[in-house]
Amino acid sequence: MDLQNLWFVLIVVLWSGYFLLEGFDFGVGMLLPFLPRDAKQRDAMFASIGPVWDGNEVWLVTAGGATFAAFPAWYATMFTGLYIALLAVLFLLIIRVVSFEWRTKSTSPRWRRAWLWANAVGSFGASLIWGVGLANLLYGTPINSHGDFDGTFWDLFNAYTLLAGVAVVAIFAFHGATYLTLRTQGDLLERAGAASRRLSVVAAALGAVFLIWTVVVAVDRNDKSVFPPVLPAAVGIAAFVLAVVFVRRRSQIRAFAMTGLGTIAVVATLFTSLFPRVMVSSTGFANSLTVSSAASAHYTLAVMSVVALIFVPLILLYQGWTYHVFRARVGGPRDEPTH
Question: 213 with 160: CB under 8 angstroms?
């Protein structure tokens, strides 16, 4: 495997890690207004992701930085075409970040409720936009012969990309509910289990439809054969079906593992369907950006590979240690109401 393809794979890994980890804390955020019974349970839900959410966002920063360095043409065209969408994501992430810090600055119920909803809206909006944005890479955006984006914000929306956004929201909410069954106890654990069962069929159905449609789009719009995109799609569909089974059997660890695997499969299916292109042009297929045409020079990729080889294992060890330290369940055994 040459360095260009290696870095494409590494970027897929980074996006998979981001969706896997940030996916469940986005899911917890979306459930905040609906799942907890009282203030104590709301505090417990914040506590379940409080020590890890900012570490999870490192995967996004790294994915963006790696794309900028390894595929500058891809980065430039993508950020031009998705500029408004990415600006909206940045705003939503900032609101969400602030909600963690400012919520505790007052004991006023109204103040705390406002920042709880800010976290929920930020989590929902960012999830929706990520689904729509990444799906556009495969479905196609207006790219001219110079490799520049030549369209408008409204060109990003169609039935397939909107389904992608809705599917990602549902999958993240399901993933977040299964995460809470591992991190909570008492009444909150029961409520999280009930939420995961209610969300399971909807999320699995939307995920399956999106994965199947992605393979169809890859064949129709990216000149791909059914194989290999069908392989990660099949893994994802199987994972979502098993997640439905496991949540009904109250097999918490297995259910979370399957929602995680399904989330990774969504990213893998998108990028497997995309390769060897990195952005498909909807105005002229010949204008599509490819791995080779968008990549940096060999020397740049070689230096990046050495840096990644040194620092990525350290980051993984540190983040793994963080999850180990904060592995204890939160929430009281009975969760008596707080008035």
Answer: yes
Asked if residue 227 belongs to a domain, the reply is yes
Amino acid 336: pLDDT = 47
Which CATH number covers residue 88? 1.20.1630
Q: What is the mean pLDDT of residues 316-326?
A: 92
Number of domains into which the chain is organized? 1
User: What does the pLDDT look like over 56-98, one tens digit per residue?
Assistant: 999 999 999 999 999 999 999 999 999 999 999 999 999 999 9
Structure-block tokens of residue 184: 């909570």
pLDDT at 253: 97
CB 177 within 8 A of CB 32: no
The mean per-residue pLDDT over the stretch 305-316 comes to: 92
The 10 Å Cβ neighbour count of residue 50 is 14
Cis peptide before 228 (omega within 30 of 0): yes
Let me know if residue 311 belongs to a domain: no
pTM here? 0.95
Q: Which two tokens stand for residue 142?
A: 């207006």
Summarize pLDDT for 125-184 with one digit per residue, the tens. 999 999 999 999 999 999 999 889 999 999 999 999 999 999 999 999 999 999 999 999
Question: Where does the pLDDT of residue 333 fall: very low under 50, low under 70, confident under 90, or very high at 90 and above?
Answer: low
φ, ψ of residue 139 in degrees (nearest 5): -65, -35
Q: Extract the tokens encoding 85.
A: 């969408």
Kindly give the residue spans of alpha helices, DSSP state H, lying in the chain: 3-31, 39-49, 53-56, 58-70, 72-81, 83-102, 109-139, 159-183, 186-221, 230-248, 252-274, 291-294, 298-325
Query: What is the per-residue pLDDT for 1?
Result: 74
CB neighbours of 13 closer than 8 A, spacing ≥ 6?
Answer: none
Q: Is 175 left (phi over 0), alpha (psi -120 to 50) or beta?
A: alpha
Within a domain: 332: no
Q: Could you tell me if residue 319 is inside a domain?
A: no
- Domain hosting 151: range is 3-301
Characterize 91-111 residue by residue with b for buried, 16 or more Cβ atoms within 10 angstroms of its Cβ, and e for exposed. Answer: ebbebbbebbeebeeeeeeee
